[in-house]
Automatic annotation (TrEMBL):
Residues 25-68 form the Ig-like domain. It comes from the Eukaryota. InterPro entries: Ig-like_dom, Ig-like_dom_sf, Ig-like_fold. This is (diamondback moth) hypothetical protein. Gene3D superfamilies: Immunoglobulins (2.60.40.10). Transmembrane segments: none annotated. SUPFAM superfamilies: Immunoglobulin.
Amino acid sequence: MSSANNIHLSFVISGVVSVCGFQQQYFRVVPRNTRVIEGSEAILQCAVANLAGQVQWAKDGFALEMKH
């Protein structure tokens, strides 16, 4: 293996080890299916327990705009 591959492998392993100390994220309020008329605004609600990072809604692989 080249040194670049060794560095990448070490980084992945240390990332997994550091995450193991945290509790699993899960939905406290589960999102529901929502239907709206195209072009209308939809309100999507959820609550995530043990949040580690940001929540991003997506549709068909594309991030949706969020208003707080």
